[in-house]
Amino acid sequence: MITEAINAPELTGNWIDHLPEAALLVDAGRDLILSANSAMGRMIGSDRQSLVGTPCTHLFTDQRPQLIAFTEETLFRSHGWSRDFFLQHRDGHTVELEISSSRVGEAETQNVLLLLRDRRQLRTLRERHDANHYHRGGLLEWRRVEELFKDMERENQLILHAVGEGIYGVDAEGRGTFANPAAERMLGWRIDELMGRVLHRVVHHSHADGSLYPLKDCPIYAAFRDASVKRVGEDWFWRKDGSGFPVEYTSTPILDNGHPVGAVVVFRDISARQEAQKELQKALEEVETLKHRLEMENAYLQEELSAEYHFHEIFGQSEAIKAIVRRIGMVAPTDANVLITGESGTGKELIARAIHQSSSRRDRPLIRVNCAAIPKDLFESEFFGHIKGAFTGAVSDRVGRFELADGGTLFLDEVGEIPLELQGKLLRVLQDQQFERVGENNTRAVDVRVIAATNRDLKSEVQEKTFREDLYFRLNVFPIESVPLRRRLEDIPILAQEFLNRACQKFNRPQLALKERDVETLKAYHWPGNVRELENVIERQVITSDGRLDLDLPGPESAARTTPAEVAPARHYSGDLMTEQELRELEKQNLTRALTMSSGRVFGDDGAAAMLGIKPTTLTSRLKKLKIEPREFQVRPE
């Protein structure tokens, strides 16, 4: 053995020069040529001393990765063999090589001896050698193993050509013995090009990211090393053109007289499956996003349904109502922004819903935002949404009202309550129909129609510089005034009877009818709370009635004449009676307690309105009347 000769103590001098073939002694760890013999110098047309101390990879400039893999294999298995390398002679011609390698020296060293042979010179010698063997009728042992694989290939020729999976065989040295046409197509190599080559270095040398795949870690080699079947669900093979593709494969050992002599590898290209999995994952993510959005829409719509709107249709026969209906019919088919003005309780939201239901957007939701109930520091999050971690308390992504209203209508109730410094951001979204969630750089596009409502005089506020003029004109494309009830007294009988019928059904009371005297009493009142107040009055009458209505409302004249100085002092009775002032104070205490318990939240299932059993809009109106600010009850982080 060469290694035995090298390690023999009696061999002195430059032992490598005694070898009959071109030889290099290389420190593989440092990529350094330690010694070279004269035959090596002749092979490349150079002085052998000029090679000593130079990197070995300089001799194989274009094959550096293959050389690293080859020396790594040699260190792992103590020997190696390859026909994949070539050198450039100094005169320019290429020397095709056959290389044998051995690990030399102590175990802790990384010295490798390379014996290099000119393949063209060897071909003539081998042909002569094989001819002599055939003439003598003898075959070497390695030919017997080769014939074993050839017999397998012949016996299974039909199967190998028919199946769609790639199939190839390797011997105990990892060299190709056969391959089917499917393997040829997938790998890009001709079958004759794979025969006799170490297939790990051809198709399995690197991971998908290009990092080296050590031979000792290869499951294909482990199959005949351990004499066990190895199944790999996801790996990477390389084609001849340098491109790669994902595979799954099974490596099955081939036994001869109980000893492993190689393995058969069956592999399948799983690129299409992985692509389908990626598409499925992408689709699932989109479905999850859509599901989250639909859940948000559903939660919002459930909240809206539970708010018990004041009325479902526009009732009235006055000219004011007919004019409103005409204007709704004109603007509804368009996408124009609408500004609805009018006192509280006149049904501005009803007009907005009528516009939406009469538009082409009726199949998408009408999303309502009570601008007066949004804390200043949560305005952007409420309108545009936020991503997880955008601010303290943002524990998950949140869809904003603009995104929920995409394709539909956004109703901005009490738009005059939006702080001046935030109006510019709203204007930009109305102009561009684009926004970013809080904490996110990704710009999102929406298609939203905006209907705004206010009980404030925005023209005056524009002049006073408390409301942006450009935002006012952007909203006020098509104005509609919601007329107060005192200016359409002829609608009172219709509204009152409708509310009376509903209240009797709601409270399970016998049906009641309005009398002429009741109608006159209702018309004589000035209705500062408009339609909402009328509904509340009728409901109280139904609750307290004993089979008939007993309306007792102050007329407009007495209301105008009465001043605080003329109000009679309240009498204090013992027992269950309370004065009006005491009732107001009790109501204020009750509302304050509800806000404290809900941490300043008005809306939602855990909001103060739900605790009190009233509509959020009603609670907002009462808080404003009593000058109670919900945000003062919010719990702030330490």
Automatic annotation (TrEMBL):
PANTHER family: PTS-DEPENDENT DIHYDROXYACETONE KINASE OPERON REGULATORY PROTEIN-RELATED, TRANSCRIPTIONAL REGULATORY PROTEIN. Pfam families: AAA_lid_14, PAS, PAS_9, Sigma54_activat. The keyword Glycoprotein does not apply. Residues 231-282 form the PAC domain. This is Two component, sigma54 specific, transcriptional regulator, Fis family. NCBIfam families: sensory_box (TIGR00229). Residues 314-543 form the Sigma-54 factor interaction domain. Transmembrane segments: none annotated. Residues 152-204 form the PAS domain. Keywords: ATP-binding, Coiled coil, DNA-binding, Nucleotide-binding, Transcription, Transcription regulation. PROSITE patterns: PAC, PAS, SIGMA54_INTERACT_1, SIGMA54_INTERACT_2, SIGMA54_INTERACT_3, SIGMA54_INTERACT_4. One of its GO terms (biological process) is regulation of DNA-templated transcription. It comes from Marinobacter adhaerens (strain DSM 23420 / HP15). GO terms for molecular function: ATP binding; DNA binding. Residues 273-304 form a coiled coil. InterPro entries: AAA+_ATPase, AAA_lid_NorR, Homeodomain-like_sf, P-loop_NTPase, PAC, PAS, PAS-assoc_C, PAS-like_dom_sf.
